[in-house]
Records
---
Amino acid sequence: MLVIGLGYVGLPLAAEAARRDLTVVGYDRDHAVVSGLNAGRSHIGDVSGDDVRVMLAGRFVATDTEDAVGWPATIVICVPTPLTADNGPDLGAVRSAAAMAARRLRPGALVVLESTTYPGTTEEVVRPLLEKGSGLTAGLDFALAFSPERIDPGNHAYSIRNTPKVVGGVTPSCTEAAASFYGKICDHVVRAASAREAEMAKLLENTYRHVNIALVNEMAIFCHELGVDLWDAIRCAATKPFGFQPFFPGPGVGGHCIPIDPSYLSYQVRRLGYPFRFVELAQEINGRMPGYVVSRATELLNQNFKPVNGSTVLLLGVTYKKDCADLRETPATSVARQLWRAGARVTYCDPYVPEWFVDGHRVEAGGRVADAAAAADLVILLQAHSAYDPAEIGRQARLLLDTRGVTAAGERL
């Protein structure tokens, strides 16, 4: 099999396929990524260097040369799908990967798109590129399907193997071909009605999370004004055994999925001539949370007769997600940027991030958490990594703003 794109989605897929004794070629345009992998080094937190060395000892090789990929029986496209400047879908990488797949396509092969996108992309964008570039017909000469990636960085309980895998083909036979392939890698395969439903399933999953996070983020703002402990209210509500799932407020949303995927659905809805008010409102609320954190930090400093300008502010946990090294779309970037603009001296501590750059500027690392907390005028806990001792942070910090609700001391968001 050929995996196009060896990032947060493609490399874990290649690793799992290699563990199942499949012959895997991983293609990526980034020469440094390819060289590192072939030397036994991983650039992804969920795939260790030891994992890569096991892959290399088996049937895996990474390459940045198209001619080296051969004529694979299965091609899986796992390239990024970012947003354009006007929040539209940027399918440049998908189109490029599909064009490459067309050049390597042989009769009887399977092509699967895993890159998150709007419903209709597999049928309307990828299929024509494959058919034009290969001279073959999807559903007759080769199989074409969509399967949403469900990678959860830092999650040690659920992996590709034991997370149900949704597949949807452009024809029923394509669905079966994809289900047969993923059945070799995953414990449970779920068949969608078509590629469109599989594409929508991914957007539905993340839009659901996006909207519910926005709900509790907005509640956090007015609960602070009302003097209500929202975390305690959530704890109590979560005891209901039906009809409620807890979501928690925070400094914003990050990663590739939640900040970006709902925009793909919103884009599709706008093409129909409708506004998607839930998504647009959720984006507005979640997008303003870093600013709200900074305003709360300013308020806390002022209450203690300190201006933001000239104060040292320590940011604890700058990744977007607990216990992982992923910095994609992290709200910590916006928090740091706004604090700098207000004149603060910003430092950070994060066990997963040895160096952190914001807008090309290196953020000063604070050293040991306890020492850095004691030295700062204000500590903002942005990510509650398991390595942190909340009680120790509470004891050492002069002022503490806890955006995750895990400490007994200080102010909660």
---
Amino acid sequence: MSISNAIVIGAGIGGLAAAAALSRRGIAVTLLEKTAKITEVGAGLQISPNGLAVLQALGLEAKLTERAAVRGQAVVLLDYKAGRQVARIDLLRGAADRPYYFVHRADLIDILYDAARRGNVSIEFGAEVVEVSPGSPAQLRLADGSLRRAELIVDASGLHSKTRSLLNCDSVGQFSGQVAWRAVIANDVGHPQEAHVTMGPGRHLVSYPLRGGRLINLVAVEERVAWAPEGWSIADDPANLREAFSSFGGQASDMISAVERCTLWGLHLHPVADVWHKNGVALLGDAAHPTLPFLAQGANLALEDAWVLAKFAARLPVDQALPKYQSTRHARVTRVIKTAAGNAKRYHLSPGFTRSAAHLGLRVASTVVPGTMISAFNWLYLHDVTAAEKA
């Protein structure tokens, strides 16, 4: 017998997508969110074709365009001194049916929230979960002392999930030696519909347009010895960002100079959880597999998780659905996270022969055989967790 009711913890991208996908398959869903309301958190996201496949299957791609999501044309690698192009990866090659989008996180949250409501998901705000207990049925306790039970409890509460610690006895994450500033500025520099990665020694800047091109999302990453806390919402002085990137020229310098408010995020390494489920309780998204931002896959992996979990929950009893969910997802997310961790080294090469040779190789490949640049990502972008049902 398949699962008939579920509780989802957390109204982020993974939690809302899971609630929408589960309810779409006839499962009664309650979504619990500890905050009093959904507020605009974070900044830009890149929805690559693998994540978009899930939004398409949920009937939500048109909502992206209604919210002025920007269709990405390319990823362009630039040198830091004057912004000279090193290589260009064409995102339009072979992607007519599944484009690549740049979208504000708040807009995607709103789209998924509306989808969950239309699916008759019961959404409760101010509902802080303090304890989850696997069992038959699984149970959780709220901060007000009340208990809730369901055949399936999905913890999509993110990086600091208590359930992850319960199932895995994890230690805290290890500081990666890198920090990231996040900011959104007005697009006064004519930034094209491209993701730009401006590469410098020990640091890089990612920029891309949002909301119809009116805004630019910035993520500036620096290698450093000093530890920094993990979290999106820790405010920092823009002067620190400007000092760290004072050697950058061209458009990168103009964009950094325009930053008025920014946050600083310490990037920490977390292993993929060994255990994703136990007796009716499952982890999803960052709760199971936090990733560094260097492949722009955090949101996309959460969307994939949501679809796969819902698929098995609608077909199998909980003691079969959850092992199938983890076994289907584990190898893929491990590969994505390993690849993301390695990207920073390629972006941060110091001046010298190695950097010059690497940039020359990228420039030649981009110019002579441009199709090879995007085809190297086929394993990532062409993966479609909804394909079997489409067929």
---
Amino acid sequence: MASLAAGLKDITVRFDNLWRQPFPYVMPLHQAPTDGGDYRDFHAFIGFLPPLRRPNTLKYLAGPEIGGGNFLSDTAPEEKAAELRAVSSIHYREAAR
């Protein structure tokens, strides 16, 4: 549990550091189905869905996103992961002290 908490802190600090502001997000947590089936191979999934395209610019959902209950991004996940890896894991407010 401590490693999960450390990982969540690391990613949320990096989100804040990306634009040096508090970074809003929706964090869905998906668990294995509970219908009694065999889901031994299922792994929990935690997602981060930011509602901003860039600082101070909201991402507006399109019809298919709203209707399908999906949140789409027109960016490559590998690009965004590289951006987050490139910023510090020490919160910008802490680093300024």
---
Amino acid sequence: MSNAANFSGTIPSYYDNGLGPNLFTFYAQDISRRVADTRPQNVLELAAGTGIVTKYLHRDLADSTNIIATDLNQAMLDIAQSKFSENDNIKFQAADAVDLPFENDTFDTLICQFGIMFFPDKLQSLKEAHRVLKDDGHYIFNVWRSWAENPFAKIAHETIASFFDDEPPKFYETPFGYHEIDEICETVKKAGFSNVTAQKLKHTAPLTDIPAFAKALVYGNPIAEEIISLGGDPDRAVTAVEASLYESFGITKNMPLEAIVFSAKKAKGE
């Protein structure tokens, strides 16, 4: 399985409504524009989640462009699909990013927003991306930088960890634990790609609803299940995370974020 975390049950709705506007929208707009610049006819989106990027792909790409949005978690795709009509040129399909169910040389461009960090075999996922791309095809993906550049994640992790004497829930280590640019670029090249570039991208997100964001930081990902499995109370965690967010961002209501956007190309004959 390519996604280490199970995003099901009520997680997708908290993810979409609480995390989406605060964390993902800005980067979704950016990566969609980058895809549009490649002028593709066939696009594959990996780890599409609840369709936050898919919405902008539909806006930015030509009407004739075929888009396939995939995710390992069907519950996330169900929300994504609900955002579109049957007339929209988008197909939704559950798929494993390390074992893609597509033929060789199928797509012009692949895109993955904040997904590769969850793939247990990152090199294999990149090899699969390379395989299904056409010659001269592009793979564009992004990852978060560390907790230092994304302090909300450190706040959430440390606040939740404070309720546990022994091993605390570790979910937030995964999405913010894969950010060494040189290491990632070397892995991308090892998978067969060329023209590999990386760009750091900062953003300041306005926090218009801190309570909703705090709740989503607990219930919008599998950490709530971790808390319960360790004998904790997710609602207590939400209250504490909310207080910590107010302490850090309550005056300005502005939250710093930083990601890295990677772009690579499949050269002819590779």
